[in-house]
Amino acid sequence: MAGDGYFDGPGPERMYNDFVDNGKFMIQRSKSTGAHVFYPRTINPGTGEADLEWVEASGNGTVYATTVNRQRPEKGGDYNVALIDLAEGPRMMSRVVGIDPADVKIGMKVRAKVDKIGDQPAVVFEQAE
Amino acid sequence: MMANPIRGKTACVGLATAGCGEAPGRNAMEIMVEAVHGALADAQISLSEVDGLFAATAFHSMAAMSLAEHLGIQPKYTSGSNIGGSSFMAHALDAAMALEAGLINVAVIAYGSNQRTAGGFRSISEPMPFETVYGPRNPITSYALATSRYMHEFGATRESLANVAVSARKWAQLNPEAFERGDLSVDDVLSARMISDPLGKLDCCLVTDGGAAIVMTRADRAKDSPKTPIHLLGCAMEHHHRMISAMPELTVSAAAKSGPRAFEMAGLKPSDMDTVQLYDAFTINTILFLEDLGFCAKGEGKDFVMNGRIAPGGALAVNTNGGGLSCVHPGMYGLFVLIEAIRQARGECGDRQIDDAKLCLAHGNGGVLSSQVTSIWGRPETV
Fold this sequence. Notes:
heterodimer, A: about 130 residues, mainly beta, CATH 2.40.50, 2 domains, 1 helix, about 40% strand, B: about 375 residues, alpha/beta, Peroxisomal Thiolase, Chain A, domain 1, nine-stranded mixed β-sheet, two-stranded antiparallel sheet, globular
């Protein structure tokens, strides 16, 4: 709807990053379809409604795919990159941290936390109990 | 059924590659122009007749404009659609439509890259928002993620993947133009340095220089061509995502949609193909595309590629030039895929020639399994 201020102010990428900078993992949900959305979009992907709202993510997820990016120890060593299926439905790229990157397995239950990768705050995941 | 208005109405009448492997001292545009010169000579068509120009590279954001200027021509129709390595199959469809509509008479599709001698892999990609912070090394990380999922769902092993690389190398050993022609074993592939698990160095395509070009005209003119015209019988595209994290299912590419539509346009089926040229940036590509294009069922690709079935003398002639894995991969490999299909249909492939090859498939892939364009080419008697 034009004139309701939906498109005013910072866009979804800036808003997401601002949430993460403040230690929060927020995703979007379409008011009309109820579907959750990640990555942050401007309008509801596929249907086009301008009705996305921010909701706090549960933080629960499952590893959908995983890799170990090999890197020399002096450059920081090997690290995990994974695709995580969020409990709400959407999938995101992230890292599973706290265990050997090669021990991250598809199907593993994981839990989100906001941490830093280098100097940059980011949503990463740890193996759930 | 009404005949498709594009099927067979245009043909490739000239082709050339240039600077494949290493072209020291030559820039991307110079390599591309050399290929255009070669393709026009092959077609015996003069540069001044070229009125449609199609190009994409990682080195020129407006490649077709830069190319036209370097060539000194003023095309009536120019397109630089960039959907990664699949751009050139898309350009062939663009060219076919523009030719058949009478907008142009002679189309040139071109590509050039000097990435190897210019310092290494040259990505055309900008950093992906919402992924970059996690440090993916694209494109490899994305293909590694897809490979991990494929292995998980279908119980594939790295040995299956290695068989793709070994088969490609055996084809390359029959191709004087191929960059890597040394002996290669499954053990060599398995023991190579890991890059992004489960992909090791030899699961990944080459980083070479290289240029390529083809010339297309309408069929009425093509029949007087000095070389056997190879007609575009079917071509279709589809893409499902840009970032790997947005790919709906990592084990099913959009080729499962582009393939059937290309076959439908051509009025043909997978078993009609005499050769199958697939964009093999990584070993997983060949397996996924064999499945998605209908040469075997989903999940069976891992077995399909074993025991030399896609190697020389095997049941299906796949990537007969040696592929991006062993022949040439200058960053956007699609036009080389297409040229190998047409060379096979022409019967120009020497030791690696498939007897009586009439119908050849050339499948392009762009991005991170993102864009898929399937094209089917045939000799005049197949139109």
